[in-house]
Design brief:
By secondary structure, this protein is of the alpha/beta class. The chain has five helices and ten strands, in the order ββααβαββαβαββββ. The chain has a single domain (4-181), classed as Dihydrofolate Reductase, subunit A. The longest helix has 12 residues, at 100-111. The model has no long low-confidence stretch (mean pLDDT 92).
Length: 184
């Protein structure tokens, strides 16, 4: 069975979107980031994707050309009226209206021996951390200070999570941090 890996790009001051909800400063050259070793590795090892409804809505339900060609499981309170675009024989979109535990279980089943990648948002990743469902946390730190916006790790009330650094690499404008969750 593969790992459950959660990760996002965030600013050095811990935000995953600016105060207006824009990601532009975090992804100034998305094509270059898509070619990075970190993203290329995720493409090869991901068997299923989990995301929250906000992340789904940010894509406008269009996964045409999405780099992670794997089944996507969207944790949501309600399904959108329109079906997702870009679905094919490798990429499907399933809406899960139950719990994060059920969402991860479905994704693990679909992924088989490959990894489940939780791509966001911060609320979904936070739920996974609280439930003890994540094996590794991958944070890509963009060399920018947003000053305000949507925080990656807000005040959650969850118990502390101890991390062990697995890898630290760099690409232009980013520091890639890979942590293993320490289980006691």
């Amino acid at each position: 069975m593969g790992r459950v890996i959660a990760g996002m790009v965030m600013s050095l001051d811990g935000f995953v979107a600016d105060r207006d909800g824009s990601l532009a400063l975090l992804y100034p050259d998305f094509e270059a980031l898509a070619e990075s070793d970190a993203v290329q590795d995720a493409i090869q090892t991901t068997g299923a994707v989990v995301m929250g409804r906000r992340s789904y809505d940010m894509s406008n339900g269009d996964f045409t050309g999405y780099e992670l060609q794997a089944p996507i499981f969207v944790l949501t309170h309600s399904e959108p009226a329109e079906p997702a675009l870009g679905q094919n024989d490798r990429l499907s979109v399933t809406f899960v209206t139950s719990t994060i535990e059920e969402t991860i279980a479905l994704a693990k089943q679909a992924a088989g021996e490959l990894d489940v990648t939780v791509v966001g948002g911060p609320e979904t990743i936070g739920q996974c951390l609280t439930a003890g469902l994540i094996d590794e946390l991958h944070m890509d730190i963009r060399a920018v200070l947003l000053g305000d916006g949507l925080p990656m790790f807000g005040q959650t009330g969850r118990p502390p999570v101890e991390l062990e650094i697995v890898e630290l690499t760099q690409s232009p404008g980013y520091t890639h941090l890979r942590y293993r969750i320490v289980r006691s």
